[in-house]
Structure formats: structure tokens, C-alpha cells
Amino acid sequence: MYREAFLAALTVFVCYGGNWLFGQTMIERPLVVGCIAGIIFGDMRAGIIMGASLEAIFMGAVDIGGALSAEPVTATVLATTFSIVLNVNEKAALALAVPIGVLAAFISMFMKNVVMNLFAPLVDKYAKDNNPRAIAIMHYSMWFINYFVFSLITFFSVLEGAKPVQHMINSIPDNLMAGLSATGGLLPAVGFAILMRMLWSKKLAPYFFLGFIMVAYLNLPSVAVAALGIILVLVISFKDKQLLDMENKQKELEKRPVAAAGAGVSNNETAEEQEEEDFFS
Amino acid sequence: MKLNENISKEDRKMLNGIFWRSFTVFASRAGATKAHAPGFIYSITPALNRYYKDDPEGRCEAMMRHTTWYNITQNVGTFVMGLVASMEKKNAQEKDFDAESIVALKTSLMGPLSGIGDSIFWGVIRVIAAGVGISLATQGSILGPILFLLIYNIPSILTRYYLTYMGFSLGSSFIEKIYANGSMKILNKAASTLGLLMIGSMTASMVKFESKLSVPIAGGKPILIQTYLDQLFKGLIPLSITLLCYWLLSKKVNVNWILLGVLVLAIILGLLGVV
């Protein structure tokens, strides 16, 4: 089990640490993590499929301003490891990922907001010492410490947790198992709700339902929905831009005093613009 | 874009330095009070080194200025880094430049830039990328994760690069202008529209609920409740649960409680034999 534990820890370090070292390039998302964990444990296909299900569950788990609802990397790696190495039923592994993710998010917030406070005075000190090199070194050390802790957690979870987890999952009764797989189906709702919080306004709400119907009744694939959406948004934006230009022009005209010289110039301008617009339309 | 024309070769080298260093800006987080200040200082170090070359005291003061709280969606934050570089340049050249205005401007841009950055990159582009990626990955295709990364990262990295230059050459007046003339509103609306459409479609395809409850009929086949629900409105339960979660969130219920609630609800339904 040492080998598997080490590999799982390595995956967490590369995906989680790498994501934040290289500009949040999304290699920490379950889609990618599942694929990488799958390759490492010798079943890429299973890893990718696992990643796809987990991506939907953790869709709304986004780290915005350091507040995190669930941490997807540890959850994905552990779930994929258990599923491939221990042959745990895929649905049970999915259900297991959720509490792991929530727990890991607490640890992440504790590390970033509490433990890392220790370094805050050092930032001031090195700035006062006029020492950018020390700040750079500290910057990278803090990165290493934080993500190394997560690798350690993964290492010991696999090492110590594998047996009890396998035992626990084998002894789950059928109806509880059905409930656990249902959680996998319902939890994405929370993620989408978080995203909706960011974008929702009363005037735009119909588009949410439009998107829902496009898939529920028309069965359109997501590429088609995205493409239609982009066309729709372009059409609306052109219209909005036109309205906005008219408004801005109106405002300008109102602002300008009807002084003879000024009015003459502005009239010329608008006449010209008008011609141009007529030409294009 | 004609952004590079008026920028000297040395300045371009410095801006490229900022662009590359900005990838690590969120690598560390120095607690709740400073957040990503070390990453910010590290990212703009090329600018400080260039403009305060013969003025160690000036560089020291500049570093101390930037030890305050910093957090902007990272690929949009390069705009502020470029802007700060141009202001530090002015500060190094002009004796009576108000250095405090650098931090004030930086701080005032954090909210609006993060707002638009989060909704475009997290709410829209990532959701589209994930939608495409998931639909391929559920069939076990490696194209899923690959396309997901490409669709997200190409616009993200381009934005990061161009905004570094735009911040340096256009300055804060640009942001004020697009806010004032309403272009920002249009952009915001377009992003939100597309995002909501995608989230709606993903709610339909990814939130799943199927009841196996049935009503026994004397002398006939039992009637499945699910068939009725589907006839009423397809995906009624997933849609209602998503909207309920949204409603709870807008009532400021902690997200962890909602997660826990959904978890418990599903397990209870399982134990009762509803699912």
C-alpha cells in the first residue's frame, strides 16, 4: 500500500500545487485530476469517467477570494484511488468523495487563513529590509508547505484508510447504497446554485430556463447549447450597443449648450455618423 | 492591437517579466490580512528593479506600499500589475507624485475587476469548457480533459498577456471610461446571459433524480411515480432542488449546511426506498 499511497500523494501535489503555481490553469479540476490518477493507477478510462462525474458534483466548488465550499483535488484522488486500487463500487466511491471534499476544504481554509498568518509579519520585515529575494523565497516556501501538507494528508488517508473504507463499503446495506448514489445525482444542484448566485438577475432568469429546456426536451449536446448561446448573446449585444450609442449621443446633445459654433460642429458630426450608419445598415 | 508600439524595448522586457511571474501570484497566501501580497510584490519586482535602479530607498518604500491585502481574479489582475508598473515609473521620475494614490487605485480596482473576472472566467468560460469536457469524458475519452483545458486556458492566458500591456499603456482612465460609457454593462450582461444558459442546460443534464416509487393497482401493473413526474415536466425534481438551493443561498444560508442538507435528504430518501 506504500506505493499506492505515495503515488496518490504525488498526484495531489502535482495537480493541486501545480494549479496554483502555474496560474490556476484548471489542472486541479476533477476532469483532469481523475484522468491523471487513472493513468498513474493503470486504468485511464475509469479515471476519466470518474473525473467526469466528480466534475459535475464539484462544479460549484470554486475558490473565490479564498472561500471554498469543497476541495476537489484530494476528494478526486482519494475516490479514484479507492475505486481503481481497491475495486470499490464506483457509485460508493463518488458518494465518499463529497465528505472528503468538504473536510479538505476546512483544512485548506485553516491552512491559508490561520496557519499562514505566521508569515504575515515576515512580509513586512522583508519589505522593510528592501529584500525582494527573501520575499520570493518566502513566496515559494509558503507554496511548498501548504501543498506538501495536503500530500501528507492524502498519503496517510490511503495508507491507513484503505482497509477500513473497503470494509465499511462492503457492509453498507442496499437501500443506504441507493441513497448514497442519489447524493451523487443531487449534489451538482448545490454547485449550480452557487454559480447562479454569481450571475442571476430577474431580467436574465429566463435564459436559465431556456438552457434547461434545450437539454431536458430538445436533448441538445452541450457544444450545441454553447454555440447557440454565443449566437444569441452576440445578437443581443449588438442591439444593446446600438441602444447605448443612441443614449450616449442623446446625452451629449443635451449636455452641449446651443452655442452657435459648438452646435454647428456637433450637427455636422452627427450628420456624418448618421450617414455612415445608414450606409452600413 | 496596437499596444506595443509606444512601449520601449526595456519596458516590454519588464512587462513580459510581470506576465510570467503573475502565474505564481496565488501560489502563497499570507493569512487573511495580507492574502496574496507576497505574490503581488514578487510579480511586480521587475518594475521596481527597473525604475528604482539607483534609488534603493525608493524601492524599499514601494515594496512596503504593496504589502497590503491583494486579491484579484488572477488572469485579470495583470491589468492592475501593468497599471502599478506605470505609476511606479511616474513616481520614480516625478518628485511630487502622490505615492499613496498607487495603493488607493490598486485597492479600488480589486472589487470591479474581480467581479467581472470571476463571472466571465469562473461562471462562463469554465462552465462551457466543463460542459464540453464532461460530455466527452463520460464516454471515457481522453479528449474530455484535453478539450476542457484548451477551451479554458487559451482565452485565459491571452487575457492575462494583453491586460498586462493594457494596464501599462492605457491606465486607469480606460477602466473608468468603459464603466462610464456603459460598455462594461453590456459585457457583464452578455457574460451573465451565456453563463445562465449554460448552467440551465447543465442542470438538466447533470442533476439527476429518479424515483422508483410505484402505486400498486389492484389487478393491474403498478404505476411508476416517475412516469407521472416526467409527464408533468421533464426534470421537475432536479430543477426544483436547484432552485431551492439557490433560494437558500440568496437567503444567506451557509453553503456547507446546504451541502449537508442535500446529502442527508438523499440518504433518507434512499433509506425510505424512494430512490
Automatic annotation (TrEMBL), chain B:
Write out the entry's keywords from A to Z.
Membrane, Transmembrane, Transmembrane helix
Q: Output the InterPro entries linked to this UniProt entry.
A: GatZ_KbaZ_carbometab (IPR050303), PTS_IID_man (IPR004704)
This protein's GO cellular component annotations are: plasma membrane
- The membrane-spanning stretches of this chain are 120-150, 186-207, 228-249, 255-274
Keyword Magnesium listed: no
Q: Which domain of life is it from?
A: Bacteria
Some GO term, biological process aspect, for this entry: which one? phosphoenolpyruvate-dependent sugar phosphotransferase system
**UniProt name for this protein:** Pts system, mannose-specific iid component
Which species does the entry assign this protein to? Companilactobacillus paralimentarius DSM 13238 = JCM 10415
Q: What is the lineage of its organism?
A: Bacteria, Bacillati, Bacillota, Bacilli, Lactobacillales
